[in-house]
Amino acid sequence: MSESITGEGIFEADALDGNDLREEAEASGSASEAEVSYDEQFYPARPKALRPIARRRQYLATRPSFEFDGRNAAYVDWLRNQAMLGDATTLARQLSGQASMWQNSYAHPNPRAAVERAPVWFTAYPLSFITRPNQSFLGALGDERMWEAFRNIGIRAIHTGPVKLAGGISGWMQTPSVDGHFDRISMAIDPAFGEEDEFRRMCQVATDHGGTIIDDIVPGHTGKGADFRLAEMNFRDYPGIYHMVDIPEEDWHLLPDVPEGKDSVNLSPDAEQALQKAGYIIGRLQRVIFYEPGVKETNWSATRAIVDTTGKTRRWVYLHYFKAGQPSINWLDPTFAGMRLVVGDALHSLVDLGTGALRLDANGFLGVEKSAEEQPGWSEGHPLSEAANQLIGSMIRKVGGFSFQELNLTIDDIKATSDSGPDLSYDFVTRPAYHFALATGDTEFLRLTLRLSMEIGVDQASLVHALQNHDELTYELMHFAAGHCDDEFELNGQTMTGSQIAEHVQQTMRERLTGEAAPYNSLFTTNGIACTTVSFIMATLGIQDPEAMTPEQEAQILDAHILLSMYNALQPGVFALSGWDLAGATVLDRTSVAELTAQGDTRWINRGAHDIMGTSPDAKTSSAGMPRARSLYGPLPEQLNDGHSFARRLQRILAVREANGIATGTLLDVPDVSHRGLLVMVNALAGGALEATVLNFSDQDISGSIRSTHFPPGASALDLFNGETVGQVDDLHSFFLDLPAYRGTALLLEPGDTSERDH
Hints:
With 759 residues, this protein is an alpha/beta fold. The strands form 8 sheets. It has an 8-stranded parallel barrel with strand order 1-2-7-13-14-15-16-22, surrounded by 6 helices. It has a 6-stranded antiparallel sheet with strand order 23-24-25-30-27-28. Helix 4 crosses helix 11 (337-353), helix 14 (431-440) runs parallel beside helix 18 (533-540) and helix 18 crosses helix 19 (551-569). It is globular and about 85 Å long. The model is unreliable at 1-61 and 755-759 (pLDDT under 50).
């Protein structure tokens, strides 16, 4: 990209017409096509990478000291220079009319194609990744040595986490992110994580090692950046990006006062109701995410008074499903400005930066609608969300990528989403259930959720089965607590409603994983428990003092961690794990992140810094300032020299998974078991072979019967880890198996010679 782009050309980027913009876009595209490469093996029909003016934010206007509002033309232009909507328009003009936009199928999700391309993911978290001195996060993720280690283990993709500029703008200053960089305000890479050229090199190194890079877009909201500030000023299409309502001055008495030094204030339930009765907003929604008394009691906030570009003073009420700094995007505004912004951000990542896939964050709350009187507004499972997800997923497939969504939905909603939207969905179906199974030594609830998933029609191969990520161990159980709260289910020999099951599971988890039982873990609002995989396992083993762990207890933790890895990896779908898993990280002492947790976001204790390659053994924090967490397993180079380490044992699991095509198989059966701690998953592999994943979630050695009507009598059960035959299927479709505590295996059912039986 030329650095000599003039201010005049830049500032016309968000207009809807103008020959200057078209000529600028064409020049930008033609000038850069020759210098940017892309991987033809994985993305044969992708448009060549372009260089839209994402780096134009380096332009610095003269900064006068007067009003930060529509009266200050220099300030308005400075904001326009950074707005995502302008970049989206410029990028779209470069892609329109290109034959390459029609070379890929895009109507329907294709989960198995996505799984084949990227079956095992490393989910990175930029703020917690320790690098070499003076090395950026993106530079570290493009390190050849790390990719060699990943390929050795079986990891084929990196999900980078959000690395673009996030947070907000106040005056001339950028304000920090309020939600781990999920409050996007720009298409530019945040300098704290590296540069665009490092991002592109990372994508190339991944390709060279048979991998791919997965980036993030956020269809549900932005931060309070340039786009939101322009929306407050009622500038052009910008208010159409958001769910914003202009409140006339005569009704400002309905709005709360904004505290000194703040730019907005959350509405109280009474104020929310008053504005609803006055006909301005739809009022309360189905739930308040991040609910915090006195901080966030509703999903609506009121802005301060601000002068727009015509000189009129305005106050707005805006919707935010998440935090106040994350205004929600309006997907059905007549300008379609929000849609244009999100699609532009997606295309920038795929066709300019060179990623192969995108995560869609907060994509289940894209439609809101007024409900019957005194009922909460319709905000979950809305058809507009499905339509928007179809549009986003189709556009991503159209340029050769794939997508996944990470939002806690009912099983029904995940099924609906998988029919028309992203190619993959995060496994919130069984994630809380497998945690519950380990915490109780009982797999009945896990078996129930797996069977419900099969009955509703969710393909396990369309799910991303994960260990820890950057969030809490969620136990909201939306399927039981919300969508089917009054339905009846059988559990523990009792008939229970969905809501009763949800409360039973949640209360059990709270008692066993927090408080006196595990004082190092913390509750996270009503969503779940802030912990790492290791600290969760510690709690299930009854370890109260992490500093007093014995070598025997550490060995048990490793066994249980491998068991959870086997559960997630030895079934159809994507397997994902994080740096916290690879390092065996424990939680941080909450006093070390007291400032971050002060507003109730306890998840920071499970986001400790980790150094998976051992590049900076003396570093006390990441470059972002996150304190270093204790690591039980050590860096990967050391682990790969130890046959009994987490990495080496994981390597063997992933080798069995890949050699037998388990990732693209089909779950056929989750049969009853002879011991409550056992779980059996029967999978059909390509070519018709049968595989059975058998896991022992209890702390007892088990000798029990493994039975499924899919097992053919006479078949031999071959252990895929050691090649030994461990049993033969009898006429009751069963065989016996010995399985130590916290262990598992994968068995191939090989049909026997039935000639004698036929006689």
